[in-house]
């Protein structure tokens, strides 16, 4: 609330008998986000002024004019962010041990499709819903027939994406039901917020990694009578995001790797950190669920007829946005595994197998999407939850 100085007269308000209707989201969420914002202007995320050498940007006329030109892309991704917040609000309250991983993913994906009014490449799911468990840190979503049930002692990373016109929100949180993991989650949340705080125009990526690592390693967690120092998973990183391209050219390390590459004006970043009680290093394991068409396609032709038709489906339905086997199933695709494998072999499609630390370890993740606007940093996916 602001303080009103001087004698502004109170205008007598005309009595308006028509009550203003306030839209309230249902449970589960079914009302599109656009219904909450009839003027089609979506709320800004958390705003942060740049530090020291870049503070001049806040009030600079030229930079402000530049931002006005970019309004449409900011407004698109803010709409995606609002979808993310409302879907995860429901998910965080309603995901319970005893549910199958498939039920969990469908809850999130149905909510996303409805709230964002999914329509071709205009709006929809940004990438497969990750629900990686325990020592699996990333890139797990169930394939058809997977009967895995969420357990009370699980550490589940919910990582889901929403896009509007290819502007992708990539944001994740960790769900646990046993307070024994509280310090692990606190470490990773603090580390991610540190990365967000340090991010800025002209900041070196390696310096962000160093700040994240220091905070993460300052935490300990006691599980089953054993004390662990929380380790950042050194071969996982955040990343820049481009239109319809979830992994841009820049990687944001979560350890000090000395990378001198700088963040630049206009960049979008997913700042994500992973903490582990294991080795702090992941390798590929188990069955793949995540795939994406590669950005720069190889010159070699696709010979296998089944691979050709499958590739057409992938191109038409997902373009370069990542997808999973369940998304092919719901399109009615059948018996596609051999064709999919061959598209991976020819380099038309990339596969992203699950990434796991050692068995028996626990991993946690928090992630936000931000944009380095010309005048200030905007943490697009910030909510009152994380
Ligand atoms: Co990400």
UniProtKB/TrEMBL annotation:
Compartments where located: Cytoplasm
Entry binding sites for substrate: 139, 247
Pfam family of the protein (one): Peptidase_M24
Binding site for a divalent metal cation 1: 159, 170, 367
GO cellular component, one term: cytoplasm
Root EC class: hydrolase
MF-aspect GO terms: initiator methionyl aminopeptidase activity; metal ion binding; metalloaminopeptidase activity
Domain Peptidase M24: 76-280
UniProt cross-references to InterPro entries, sorted A to Z: Creatinase/aminopeptidase-like, Met_Aminopeptidase_Type2, Pept_M24, Pept_M24_MAP, Pept_M24A_MAP2, Pept_M24A_MAP2_BS, WH-like_DNA-bd_sf, WH_DNA-bd_sf
Keyword hit for Cytoplasm: yes
Residue stretches in coiled coil: none
Cofactor(s) for this UniProt protein: Fe(2+); Co(2+); Zn(2+); Mn(2+)
Keywords assigned: Aminopeptidase, Cytoplasm, Hydrolase, Metal-binding, Protease
Biological process per Gene Ontology, one example term: proteolysis
Residues that hold a divalent metal cation 2 according to the record: 170, 239, 272, 367
Catalyzed chemical reaction(s): Release of N-terminal amino acids, preferentially methionine, from peptides and arylamides
Superkingdom as given in the UniProt entry: Eukaryota
PROSITE patterns documented for this protein: MAP_2
EC number(s) per entry: 3.4.11.18
Annotated cofactor note: Binds 2 divalent metal cations per subunit. Has a high-affinity and a low affinity metal-binding site. The true nature of the physiological cofactor is under debate. The enzyme is active with cobalt, zinc, manganese or divalent iron ions. Most likely, methionine aminopeptidases function as mononuclear Fe(2+)-metalloproteases under physiological conditions, and the catalytically relevant metal-binding site has been assigned to the histidine-containing high-affinity site.
Function recorded in the entry: Cotranslationally removes the N-terminal methionine from nascent proteins. The N-terminal methionine is often cleaved when the second residue in the primary sequence is small and uncharged (Met-Ala-, Cys, Gly, Pro, Ser, Thr, or Val).
NCBIfam families: met_pdase_II
Family of this protein: Belongs to the peptidase M24A family. Methionine aminopeptidase eukaryotic type 2 subfamily.
Protein name, entry field: Methionine aminopeptidase 2
């Amino acid at each position: 609330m602001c303080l009103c100085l001087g004698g502004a007269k109170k205008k007598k308000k005309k009595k308006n008998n028509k009550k203003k209707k306030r839209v309230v989201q249902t449970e589960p969420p079914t009302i599109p986000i656009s219904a909450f914002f009839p003027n089609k202007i979506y709320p800004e995320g958390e705003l942060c002024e740049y530090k020291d050498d870049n503070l001049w940007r806040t009030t600079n006329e030229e930079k402000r004019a530049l931002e006005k030109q970019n309004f449409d892309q900011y407004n698109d991704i803010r709409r995606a962010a609002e979808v993310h917040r409302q879907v995860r609000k429901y998910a965080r309250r309603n995901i319970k041990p005893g549910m199958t991983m498939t039920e969990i993913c469908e809850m999130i994906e149905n909510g996303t499709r409805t709230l964002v009014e999914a329509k071709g490449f205009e709006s929809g799911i940004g990438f497969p819903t990750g629900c990686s468990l325990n020592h699996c840190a990333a890139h797990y979503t169930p394939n058809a027939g997977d009967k895995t049930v969420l357990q009370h002692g699980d550490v589940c990373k919910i990582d889901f994406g929403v896009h509007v016109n290819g502007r992708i929100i990539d944001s994740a949180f960790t769900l646990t039901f046993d307070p024994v993991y509280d310090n692990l989650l606190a470490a990773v949340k603090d580390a991610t917020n540190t990365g967000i705080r340090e991010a800025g125009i002209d900041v070196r990526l390696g310096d962000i990694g160093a700040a994240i690592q220091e905070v993460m390693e300052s935490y300990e967690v006691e599980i089953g009578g054993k004390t662990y120092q929380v380790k950042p998973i050194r071969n996982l990183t955040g990343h820049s995001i481009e239109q319809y391209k979830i992994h841009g050219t820049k990687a944001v390390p979560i350890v000090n790797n000395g990378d001198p590459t700088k963040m630049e004006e206009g960049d979008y970043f997913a700042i994500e950190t992973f903490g582990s009680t294991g080795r702090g290093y992941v390798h590929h394991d188990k069955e793949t669920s995540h795939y994406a068409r590669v950005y720069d396609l190889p010159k070699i032709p696709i010979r296998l007829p089944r691979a050709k038709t499958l590739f057409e489906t992938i191109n038409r339905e997902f373009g370069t946005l990542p997808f999973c086997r369940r998304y092919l199933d719901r399109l009615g695709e059948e018996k596609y595994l051999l064709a999919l494998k061959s598209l991976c072999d020819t380099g038309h499609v990339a596969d992203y197998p699950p990434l796991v630390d050692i068995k028996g370890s626990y991993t946690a993740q928090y992630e936000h999407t931000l944009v380095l606007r010309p005048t200030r940093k905007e943490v697009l996916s910030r909510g009152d939850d994380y």
